[in-house]
Amino acid sequence: MRLRTPLSDKDVRALKVGDTATIDGVIVTGRDEVHLRALELAREGRKLPVDLTGAALFHAGPIMRKEGNGWKAIAAGPTTSSRMNSMEPEFIERFGIRAVIGKGGMSQPTIDAMSKFGCAYLAFTGGAAIQGAEGIREVKGVEWLDLGMPEAMWILEVKGFGPLTVAIDAHGNSLYKRVDEEVKANLAKVRRSLGI
Length: 196
Description:
- This protein has helices spanning 9-13, 32-43, 88-95, 108-117, 129-134, 175-194; strands at 2-4, 20-29, 56-58, 63-67, 70-75, 99-102, 120-123, 136-143, 153-168.
- The chain has a single domain (2-194), classed as Fe-S hydro-lyase, tartrate dehydratase beta-type, catalytic domain (fumarase, Alpha-Beta Barrel), CATH 3.20.130.10.
- Helix 4 links the parallel strand 6 (99-102) and strand 7 (120-123).
- It is globular, with a radius of gyration of 18 Å.
- With 196 residues, the chain is of the alpha/beta class.
- The chain contains six helices and nine strands, in the order E-H-E-H-E-E-E-H-E-H-E-H-E-E-H.
- Helix 2 (32-43) packs across helix 3 (88-95) and helix 3 (88-95) runs parallel beside helix 4.
């Protein structure tokens, strides 16, 4: 499935766990410090430098190289998303993001927020930072560079970014939870067969 940002509620609700997707359009990076600063500004009633409505938020700390007046992405792999678990539900609600790109899954409160507000979690393969950079056509800008290169908010124009796996959909289904349940069921079968 080919997605284009900004994403609508309809776009996201059509996704199901296990689907494969790519993204065209603009995505925005955001790790711990972006979450902290954005939520602090919002709580103070101040606007962000970028409208995140319908956005795809990429949990990544890309490596960039300065080229003339602009930047070029050298590597852009996913950060472990669980680091943002305590902030993501409020982030989804306040800013209207429609997709989170990362690795490793997210907590039940985040899954609940995704279901309530229409957002999906798109898993990107860890260790594929060069492939991620290849999907970036242009670095459109950067905000909050004072936080440091990996923690800044990078605005990226992408084409065919992915492949991404829908690991949590906007209906509360989680691939991680499904796999965990299957592992527990199989382990219980093994224990029963061994009499333990």
